[in-house]
């Protein structure tokens, strides 16, 4: 591998987000720094549209709205909710952004999000981070004229144009072990179990699981870890439909 | 999308299973310049909080506050324009060195991460291991090279960084109020 590898990290999306890129000449370092800023800006934009913790985001507005209310949402929200709806259908309801509060109680028509019940709440925690990684990677790649680069948002990562060695964390005992080299694709891992940060809707009776999914886009690798964790299956049709490969770690 | 299992790589033997993980992003000097690009120099000064001030911040934030703070005071000519602090926080498996900056106008700058360390969980839980980082304010330079390793894993919470930033913002505000920082 030639060139200098530069990387930068900031807290965002509730975790640590790293941007990395290869610069072939020393004077390119300034360009790369500017491109990193573009990537972090893209992430902030997605976060301001999708965060359930922000009452002024589209999702915060939806959760605070009364039944029957409808309002125009941003392009990021439309993209993620459209994918979420499709994944819900393809996974027979296993993927559910309402986490059991009313999977059929929202609709999206011509960019307007409508709330059909008072109790439904949307949380895009299981898909929004992946979309933010995709958007940041596109911003970075665009700013760098397709130079090799990657984005890693606390373990949800996407890489373009280089071979990135990836280690897998031991979620119970700590430490990492070498796992794979990922080139031009996305990878997400999730741990669902005692003390885990991730929660699954209606996960009573679902055994503790540590799963990973690789896919061409991080939106899908992120979202599909939930489907694999709930089903325990790595051969679901929905995976093949999005070009994804899954692992259930032992 | 292309995936190559580690066991098929010629370098497979280089990293032992269960290894620790480390990345350096910025030095303290690079971070202070990123936080305050308009500063023409920085004065590194040591401050000790008055006990009453320390206790007040502690009870207001519900966080432990140490009495001694090393602050990189951002200067423009003779004028103080802000304060940058490099600090460490420790999470479940991770140690994060970060820099927070507050302008004299009270505006908090975007947080910069200086380095990230991930170890075996059992080390992090040992008091002696944690203590070796107490009060440490410098890190090694920005790493350039071919070490691009990344971790895939469950999302680590950054809430301890957020707590670390709240500490610094409160300490800088207190030092400004008391007239120690001017």
Fold and architecture overview:
The complex is a heterodimer of chains A (250) and B (182). With 250 residues, chain A is of the alpha+beta class. Chain A is 32% helix and 31% strand. Chain A is built from 6 helices and 10 strands; from the N terminus they run ββααβαββαββββααβ. In chain A, strands 1-2-6-7-8-9-10 form a 7-stranded antiparallel sheet, with helices on one face. Chain A has a 3-stranded antiparallel sheet with strand order 3-5-4, with helices on one face. The longest helix of chain A has 23 residues, at 28-50. In chain A, 54% of the residues are buried. Chain B has 182 residues and is α+β, with helices and mostly antiparallel strands. Chain B has one domain. In chain B, 26% of the residues lie in helices and 31% in strands. Chain B contains 5 helices and 8 strands; from the N terminus they run ββαβαββββααβα. Chain B has a 6-stranded antiparallel sheet with strand order 2-7-6-5-4-3. In chain B, β6 (94-103) and β7 (112-118) form a beta hairpin. In chain B, α2 packs antiparallel against α5. The relative contact order of chain B is 0.21. At the A-B interface, β1, β2, β6, β7 and β8 of A face β1, β7, α3, β8 and α5 of B.
């Amino acid at each position: 591998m030639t060139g200098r590898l530069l990387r930068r990290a900031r807290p965002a999306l509730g975790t640590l987000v790293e941007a990395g890129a290869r610069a072939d000449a020393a004077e390119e370092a300034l360009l790369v720094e500017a491109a990193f800023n573009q990537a972090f800006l893209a992430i902030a934009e997605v976060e301001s549209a999708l965060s359930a913790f922000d009452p002024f985001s589209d999702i915060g507005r939806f959760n605070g709205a009364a039944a029957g209310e409808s309002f125009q949402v941003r392009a990021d929200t439309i993209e993620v909710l459209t994918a979420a709806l499709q994944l819900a259908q393809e996974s027979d309801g296993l993927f559910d952004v309402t986490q059991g509060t009313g999977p059929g109680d929202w609709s999206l028509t011509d960019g307007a999000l409508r709330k059909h019940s008072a109790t439904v709440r949307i949380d895009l925690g299981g898909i929004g981070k992946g979309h933010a990684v995709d958007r940041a990677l596109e911003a970075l790649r665009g700013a760098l004229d397709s130079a090799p680069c990657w984005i890693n948002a606390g373990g949800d990562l996407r890489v373009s144009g280089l071979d990135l060695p990836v280690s897998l964390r031991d979620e119970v005992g700590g430490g990492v072990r070498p796992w794979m080299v990922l080139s031009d694709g996305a990878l997400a891992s999730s741990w669902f179990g005692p003390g885990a940060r991730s929660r699954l809707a209606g996960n009573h009776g679902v055994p503790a699981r540590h799963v990973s999914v690789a896919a061409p886009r991080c939106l899908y690798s992120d979202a599909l870890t939930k489907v694999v964790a709930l089903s325990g299956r790595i051969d679901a049709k929905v995976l093949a439909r999005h070009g994804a490969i899954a692992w259930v770690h032992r | 999308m292309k995936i190559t299992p580690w066991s098929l790589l010629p370098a497979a033997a280089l990293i032992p299973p269960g290894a620790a993980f480390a990345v350096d992003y910025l030095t303290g000097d690079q971070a202070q310049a990123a936080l305050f690009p308009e500063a023409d120099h920085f004065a590194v000064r040591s401050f000790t909080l008055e006990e009453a001030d320390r206790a007040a911040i502690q009870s207001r934030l519900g966080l432990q506050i140490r009495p001694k703070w090393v602050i990189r005071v951002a200067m423009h000519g003779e004028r103080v324009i802000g304060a940058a602090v490099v600090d460490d926080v420790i999470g479940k498996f991770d140690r994060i060195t970060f820099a927070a900056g507050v302008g004299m106008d009270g505006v908090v700058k975007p947080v910069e991460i200086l380095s990230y360390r991930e170890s075996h969980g059992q080390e992090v839980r040992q008091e002696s291991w944690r203590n070796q980082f107490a009060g440490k304010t410098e890190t090694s330079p920005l790493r350039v090279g071919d070490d691009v390793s990344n971790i895939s894993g469950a999302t680590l919470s950054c809430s301890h960084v957020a707590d670390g930033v709240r500490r610094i913002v409160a300490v800088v505000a207190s030092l400004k109020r008391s007239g120690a920082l001017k």
